[in-house]
From TrEMBL:
EC number: 1.11.1.-
Function comment: Involved in the recovery of exogenous heme iron. Extracts iron from heme while preserving the protoporphyrin ring intact.
Localisation: Cell envelope
Record-annotated Dyp-type peroxidase C-terminal domain positions: 218-401
Species, as recorded: Nonomuraea composti
Catalytic activity reported: heme b + 2 H(+) = protoporphyrin IX + Fe(2+)
Protein name: Deferrochelatase
Domain of life: Bacteria
Cofactor(s) named in the record: heme b
Originating gene: efeB
Keywords, in A-Z order: Heme, Iron, Lyase, Metal-binding, Oxidoreductase, Peroxidase, Signal
Root EC class: oxidoreductase
Length: 415
């Protein structure tokens, strides 16, 4: 009997063929690699030392999804990761998810691409995978390889996390300049994973809230302030090696070249914020709302001077201003690479917008970076009067896929 998986060419052999880019004619995967897409329509290279979608200049749209693995068969999980990798290599280059595409297969079989991105360019799509702590239980023999960096995050003061939209065995971050391209990618990975994974939760995002390259202007969050002015940038090679990329000596050699991802869904009480005076808003952030300059300064990228005082003799930037509490000087130099997104998920039963920031941050070790920074903010930041953390995720994002013979997580399962 020919199974559906074999019919669609998604078995192990099919994955190898897809991974090699064996399609009729010259494959887009064979094009000379670029460091990054040169326009919003162009593809971003899939293969490399690190996964795309981390230091890649942040795109405008997000579809982030966490999955639970519903098989206990290690071989099935590895096969899925191989199939996902082959599909991701195609999707990120503007191709369809499988070699038969949306209309090229047998009429009596379901297509191996859902088709809603037909005719659309690659739109800078990147797909980034991560492994949650729950994947390292007894099911797949991975317990000994669980990184210490995946230690559970502490309970932070004031958070009200919903378990239904937190955690997950796997996550996939899809970023693109076209929301339909990002949604199409996640939809097809979920389709390929049917019977082996189920969607635990997902989040759509729009309007990046950080710049990951010096070629990008600083965007604004839904509170109207420029966000991520002092973010790590892809041009900061030495800082990235120190603060972002995991190394073989960090305790989990299979993660060398990877990074650790923290997600937080942060709801903003925008109606209350909108009734707050401009002066108070600026004092809370420690920056001007228009230019984004530190208080006491003139331009967005002026150095933060926490000792500078105003005519009243008080510091321009208070001890509890957001920029002071989050600054590397307050945390032994710890920094994050942020690439979060705004979200609006309709309104609640009281007619208030369900809106805010889907926070995404990559780092070398959450225990030394995100945790101390967030503890300080949770304890002292006046901004907490206007925000609520409602979901949380922590994932180990492995190194990049080297070539068509490699796959997501190979270093974990075969290393």
């Amino acid at each position: 009997m020919v199974t559906r998986r074999k019919l669609l060419g998604l078995g192990a052999a099919g994955a190898a063929v897809l991974g090699a880019g064996a399609v009729a004619g010259r494959s887009v995967l064979d094009d000379p690699p670029q460091a990054h897409a040169s326009s919003t329509a162009d593809p971003v290279p899939f293969y490399g030392e690190h996964q795309a979608g981390i230091v890649t200049p942040a795109q405008d749209r997000l579809h982030f999804t966490a999955f639970d693995v519903i098989t206990d068969d290690r071989a099935e999980l590895v096969e899925l990761l191989q199939e996902w990798t082959a599909a991701a290599a195609r999707l990120t280059q503007g191709k369809e998810a499988g070699s038969f595409g949306a209309v090229g297969g047998a009429p009596e079989a379901a297509p191996d691409d859902t088709g809603e991105a037909l005719g659309l360019p690659a739109s800078g799509l990147t797909l980034t995978i991560g492994f949650g702590a729950s994947l390292f239980d007894e099911r797949f023999g991975l317990a000994a390889k669980r990184p210490a960096q995946l230690a559970p995050l502490p309970k932070f003061p004031g958070e009200r996390l919903d378990p239904a939209i937190s955690g997950g065995d796997l996550c996939v971050q899809a970023c693109a300049h076209d929301p339909q391209v990002a949604v199409h990618a996640i939809r097809n990975l979920a389709r390929i994973g049917f019977g082996r994974v189920s969607v635990r939760w997902s989040q759509l995002g729009f309007g990046r809230t950080s710049s990951t390259s010096r070629n990008q202007v600083t965007p604004r969050n839904l509170m109207g302030f420029k966000d991520g002015t002092n973010n790590l940038k892809l041009e900061d090679a030495a800082l990235l090696n120190d603060q972002l990329w995991a190394a073989a000596g960090d305790g989990s050699p299979w993660m060398a070249g990877g990074s650790y991802l923290v997600t937080r869904k942060i709801r903003m009480m925008v109606e209350t914020w909108d009734r707050t005076s401009l002066a108070e808003q600026e004092q809370i952030f420690g920056r001007t709302k228009g230019e984004g300059a530190p208080l006491g300064g003139k331009a967005e990228f002026d150095e933060l001077d926490f000792a500078a005082k105003g005519p009243d003799g008080k510091p321009y930037i208070s001890d509890v201003a957001h920029v002071r509490l989050a600054h590397p000087s307050s945390h032994g130099g710890a920094r994050l690479l942020r690439r979060g997104y705004n979200f609006v998920d309709g309104s609640d039963g009281l007619g208030r917008l369900d809106a805010g920031l889907f926070f995404i941050a990559y780092q070398r070790d959450p225990r030394r970076q995100f945790v101390p920074i967030q503890l300080s903010l949770a304890r002292h930041d006046v901004l907490n009067e206007y925000i609520q953390h409602v979901s949380s995720g922590l994932f180990a994002c492995p190194p990049g896929v080297r070539d068509a013979g490699d796959y997501w997580g190979r270093t974990l399962f075969e290393g």
